[in-house]
Design brief:
Layout lengths: L18 H14 L3 H94 L3 H11 L8 E5 L1 H17 L2 E5 L8 E4 L4 E3 L2 H11 L12
Length: 225
């Protein structure tokens, strides 16, 4: 036997429902809202993405700070190495300057020695070409002696003695001079001897005097021939 269907309950305004009825009604309403779980999942995903971004930013910041610290340390080490290399270079340049100075001094001395040797040979050549130069040398030597020339002797190379006798023999004899020869004396030089003084005007002696006047060592010099 079919029970007769009851008429639907008349709907009452919501404000007239009991508290339980209102809760029950709200529960059904919420169940009917679609996508609630999706929204929660999306919120969770967004939170994870935000956390990942923050972690990535933190990692980048840490890397940048570490790189900057390493760069500063590398720069300091590089500067220290550069300063060390500069100090070595300065020492090298100083030693090089000292060496160059020594080379300059040695070169200057070598040039001076060469100049003296050339001058020495030129003097010998001039004496051979102009033997009359001995006359001036004798006059200079005699003028260096006191006027009182007792027992004055003029000692010359035989060749020069012949020239002096021809050119100055009478003058010297009148002044009381006597001419002697000595083959050991090189042509162009002479010795003057008196009772009170002696003058060595030989070529080696005069050359040594010239060299010493410019402050040079004469031990290496050869006697002009």
């Amino acid at each position: 036997m079919r029970m007769p269907m009851s008429d639907p309950l008349p709907q009452r305004p919501k404000e007239q429902l009991t508290a339980f009825q209102r809760w029950e009604l709200n529960s059904f309403d919420e169940a009917e809202k679609p996508g609630t779980e999706n929204l929660a999942a999306e919120a969770l995903l967004a939170s994870r993405e935000s956390a990942a971004i923050q972690l990535q930013n933190l990692q980048k910041k840490t890397y940048d700070e570490s790189y900057a610290a390493g760069l500063a340390a590398g720069h300091a080490a590089g500067m220290q190495q550069a300063q060390s290399e500069i100090a070595k270079l300065q020492t090298l340049m100083s030693n090089l300057q000292i060496a160059l100075t020594q080379v300059d001094e040695q070169l200057a001395q070598s040039l001076l020695d060469l100049s003296l040797e050339i001058a020495q040979k030129m003097v010998v050549s001039v004496l051979h070409i102009e033997p009359q130069i001995i006359l001036k040398i004798i006059s200079t030597a005699i003028s260096s002696l006191p006027h009182f020339n007792q027992n004055a002797h003029l000692i010359l190379h035989p060749t020069d003695a012949d020239l002096v006798r021809r050119q100055m023999g009478d003058e010297l004899a009148h002044a009381g001079w006597k001419i002697f020869t000595d083959p050991k004396i090189e042509s162009g030089g002479c010795r003057v001897e008196t009772s009170h003084s002696n003058i060595d005007a030989t070529n080696p002696a005069r050359w040594q005097s010239i060299v010493e006047s410019i402050g040079q060592d004469t031990s290496w010099l050869k006697t002009p021939n």
